[in-house]
Amino acid sequence: MPEGIEVELYRRAALVALGRPIASVRIPVAAYVRGGSDRREIEARLVGEGFTGARRRGKLLLLDSPGAVLGLRFGMTGRLIVDGAAPVERLEYASDRDDRAWDRLVVTFGDGGTLRVRDQRRLGSVELDPDEGALGVDAFEVQGSQLASILATSSRPLKARLLDQARIAGLGNLLVDEILWRASLDPRRPASSLTSPERRRLLRHLRATLDELLRRGGSHTGDLQEQRHRDGVCPRDGAPMKRHRVGGRTTYACSVHQRAQD
């Protein structure tokens, strides 16, 4: 968290910041800047300009300006707040507190409004002109032939492959668990082991899950979410949920309808 859904909501919220002259840029912690630039360079290239576009590639929010592209990554607890309004009020792994001491980027516009990144755990980052080519196809745009190629060339566990941002950008832990649960696929299976019908089923549920959870307002709104714990039961068939470690991430899967192939 945030995953591609949250960052898409952030992108939409950032549209109201376009075309407004930037009066100041404040980044309280120098280490929050990544990619070889520093706070002074960001300020020099943005102040006096205005954002002309808001784009998203996976979990990366891109704010275009005449002098630079500002890339924002939100880690596990980062939220975008524009003019005091947050499109996502709650993140799964963040505190319920809303503390201005957690502001890692504050862009103030000439009209007095602000664009802020509020990040409790400081795992996100700000970067000038990030390498967009390092990211794979956006999860909202992946096509069947692309998914087939991504899976067929890897013996890694299915979930780990779907989490690889260099292959498919925008899927995170919650979304992948929800998608695989809906698609009745074991997250531990080798990605290359999926048959053509299984890949088509996976793509269908990937698209439907993204669309549905975007309408609901977040990656944490999936049907599986409340049962992602040790004593959870499958919302579909009442079987025990199993807890695994896949690709370094805590993973939940139904012990019945997501059972691995023999």
Helix content: 25-40%
The share of residues in extended strands comes to 15-25%
Trace the largest sheet across and list its strands. Answer: 2-9-5-4-3
Helix and strand pattern:
HEEHEEEEEEEEHHEHHEE
| Low-pLDDT sequence parts | none
Largest sheet: number of strands, sense, barrel closure:
5 strands, mixed
Q: Which secondary-structure class do the elements indicate?
A: alpha+beta
| Rg computed from alpha carbons, rounded to a whole number of angstroms | 20 Å
Q: Tell me the overall shape.
A: elongated
Tell me the span between the first and last alpha carbons.
Answer: 33 Å
Strand segment tally: 13
Arithmetic mean pLDDT:
95
Number of helices: 6
